[in-house]
């Protein structure tokens, strides 16, 4: 009997794990496989008969074809812009000796505390036709087009700024692997600054850059919020078009066809990019890393240029969040006219958020949905990750692959599949109709966060020494005792961090919510987007700034708790281990 069969046999000896497998199998069949099959049938059997007429209908739709073209243009352009800007801001904050590097990092880090529909709405309310800076510019240049920050240019700018957050998070860590001794040796051999960057620094960073490139391309291909808010009528991408077509029964087949194309394009590009990554050579010439001090730019002209570009970028990054904070304390008249004065400032907006039901309700709805989905997905994936890590086999491999489907398929495709599938009674969910109910959005949120949560929790379990389990087994602990008393205390810190990150990212979710939200209980992302689409600035616009500030505060606290503390947990872990084994000994 091979190891796979042995692991399967051992797995089925635990009634608890068998029950979990049954629940996971039902969830995969019901919410991951069935909706995609229904989506395919919507395309190829719209009238219960096989037909390929939807493709000619799609080809004849100018809006649909333009959206396809725009999505691919955006995805390929962002690969270049996000990486150029992202690598630059990491170099000026982590590698080069730049005056005011801490201020620059804080300015660039604003891309981490807000994004998606919140960032897009903020930029529109500041640079859009009725925006503050646009009104100021019109007083100086009356001939300026009020819609100057609309279309492809605006979408690329905001998407680029939002995308560089990955560089700050991941590439900054990779920069620590650059070896000081190797850099100094290259300098002594006469290598120039650019040669060192190209041949020593970038090889260390290439794997991270490649991973970010994949995320950037997929994000641009499936972009929803930024093109919807800032694209205008001239630059709409696939996801907003899917939303537009899905709102009409006569064009739902077009929405399904576009979603299928988006899913196929995503899978093909993932396959191509992964093949390119495996075919590349990425290595560092260093063997033992010595911490790298910041490098001075010896050429005075280059030094000045780098400083100027860095500070110009910092201003571009920092101005919107700073103005959002300022305008959250003002009224609609001040925002629309662009005239600030001491009499304009008030706390009424914040008082309204916490005292008026209509104002606080979207925020509360988002908090409840995000909290429930974050806790549910982490609790569920704790057991699933443990099974996959403990009993590697063909069965658990297939479960893992299927649970990663939400990473392969775009959010719009998954959401549309859920809408189409559960708009009628289904025996797999007890004959209930879920579309239009409160629960379907929670299901959508859980599905969206499964791959990330599973991947991170599995890594946490893999990082625990096998000697811990062996010691527990020798002391007579069962599998469930080992899981509950030995492994769980060690995984809980990572699970808590994952829960916080999931909660943070779901608070302003728009892509999934716009398809699945209950019409009377709509979360914050939809509220903010609706407020932004209005042609005039009113009190709702002022509340939007307050929501954005609150979300930025929550994001900042979350990032600090997850990334900003380097607590030494070794001693508490040892104490916990001793306490655990004592409990096991006592039975």
| Helix-strand topology string | HHHHHHHHHHHHHHHHHHHHHHHHHHHHH
Number of strands: 0
What is the CATH superfamily label of the domain at 52-327? MetI-like
* Helix proportion range: over 70%
Terminal residue distance: 34 Å
Rg, rounded, reads 26 Å
Low-confidence stretches: 281-288, 566-574, 583-587
For the residues shown, what is the average pLDDT?
A: 81
Number of helices: 29
Structure class: mainly alpha
Shape: globular
Biggest β-sheet: count, sense, barrel? Answer: none
Which architecture of the domain at 52-327 per CATH? Orthogonal Bundle
In the CATH hierarchy, what is the class of the domain at 52-327? Mainly Alpha
Strand residues, percent: under 5%
Task: Could you tell me the CATH topology label of the domain at 52-327.
Answer: MetI-like fold
Could you outline the blueprint of secondary structure elements for this entry?
Elements: H1 3-11, H2 15-44, H3 53-59, H4 62-95, H5 101-108, H6 110-113, H7 116-127, H8 132-140, H9 152-163, H10 165-175, H11 180-188, H12 193-221, H13 225-230, H14 238-246, H15 252-279, H16 300-327, H17 332-337, H18 348-355, H19 357-390, H20 394-403, H21 405-408, H22 411-421, H23 439-462, H24 466-474, H25 479-506, H26 513-516, H27 524-533, H28 539-564, H29 570-585
Helix pairs in contact: 2-15, 2-22, 3-15, 4-5, 4-9, 4-10, 4-12, 5-16, 7-27, 7-28, 10-12, 11-12, 12-15, 14-15, 15-22, 16-28, 18-19, 18-28, 19-23, 19-25, 23-25, 24-25, 25-28, 25-29, 27-28
């Amino acid at each position: 009997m091979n190891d796979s069969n042995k692991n399967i046999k051992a797995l089925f000896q635990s009634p608890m794990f068998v029950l979990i497998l049954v629940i996971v199998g039902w969830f995969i069949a019901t919410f991951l496989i069935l909706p995609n099959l229904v989506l395919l049938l919507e395309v190829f059997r719209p009238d219960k008969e096989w037909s390929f007429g939807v493709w000619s209908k799609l080809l004849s739709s100018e809006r649909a074809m333009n959206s396809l073209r725009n999505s691919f243009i955006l995805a390929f352009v962002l690969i270049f812009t996000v990486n150029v800007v992202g690598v630059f801001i990491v170099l000026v904050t982590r590698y080069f000796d730049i005056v005011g590097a801490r201020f620059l990092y804080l300015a660039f880090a604003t891309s981490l505390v807000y994004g998606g529909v919140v960032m897009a709405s903020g930029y529109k309310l500041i640079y859009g036709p009725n925006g503050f800076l646009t009104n100021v510019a019109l007083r100086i240049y009356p001939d300026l087009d009020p819609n100057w920050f609309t279309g492809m240019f605006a979408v690329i700018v905001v998407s680029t700024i939002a995308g560089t957050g990955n560089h700050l998070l991941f590439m900054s860590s990779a920069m620590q692997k650059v070896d000081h001794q190797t850099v100094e040796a290259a300098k002594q051999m006469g290598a120039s600054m650019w040669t060192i960057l190209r041949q020593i620094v970038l090889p260390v960073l290439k794997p991270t850059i490649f991973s970010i490139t994949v995320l950037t391309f997929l994000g641009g291909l499936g972009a929803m919020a930024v093109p919807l808010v800032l694209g205008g009528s001239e630059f709409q991408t696939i996801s907003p078009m899917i939303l537009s077509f899905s709102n009409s029964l006569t064009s739902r087949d077009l929405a399904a066809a576009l979603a299928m194309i988006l899913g196929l394009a995503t899978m093909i590009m993932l396959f191509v990019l992964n093949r390119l990554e495996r075919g590349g050579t990425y290595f560092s010439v260093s063997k033992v890393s010595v911490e790298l001090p910041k490098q001075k730019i010896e050429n005075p002209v280059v030094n000045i240029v780098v400083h100027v570009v860095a500070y110009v970028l910092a201003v571009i990054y920092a101005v919107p969040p700073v103005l959002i904070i300022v305008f959250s304390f003002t009224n609609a008249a001040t925002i629309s006219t662009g005239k600030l004065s001491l009499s304009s400032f008030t706390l009424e907006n914040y008082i309204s958020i916490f005292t008026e039901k209509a104002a606080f309700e979207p925020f509360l709805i988002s908090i409840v949905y995000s909290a429930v989905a974050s806790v549910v997905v982490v609790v569920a994936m704790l057991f699933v990750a443990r099974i996959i890590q403990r009993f590697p086999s063909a069965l658990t491999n297939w479960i893992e692959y299927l649970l990663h489907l939400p990473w392969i398929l775009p959010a719009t495709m998954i959401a549309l599949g859920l809408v189409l599938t559960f708009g009628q009674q289904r025996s797999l969910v007890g004959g209930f109709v879920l579309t239009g109910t409160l629960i379907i959005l929670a299901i959508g949120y859980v599905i969206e966060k499964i791959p990330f949560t599973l991947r991170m929790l599995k890594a946490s379990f893999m990082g625990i020494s096998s000697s811990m389990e062996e010691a527990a087994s020798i002391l007579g602990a069962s599998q469930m005792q080992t899981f509950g008393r030995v492994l769980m205390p060690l995984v809980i810190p990572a699970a808590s961090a994952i829960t916080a990150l999931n909660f943070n990212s779901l608070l302003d979710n728009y892509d999934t919510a716009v398809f699945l939200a209950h019409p009377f209980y709509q979360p914050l992302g939809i509220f903010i987007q609706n407020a932004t689409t209005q042609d005039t600035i009113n009190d709702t616009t002022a509340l939007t700034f307050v929501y954005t500030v609150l979300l930025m505060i929550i994001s900042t606290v979350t990032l600090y708790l997850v990334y900003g503390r380097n607590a030494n947990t070794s001693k508490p872990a040892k104490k916990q281990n001793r306490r655990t084994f004592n409990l096991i000994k006592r039975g």
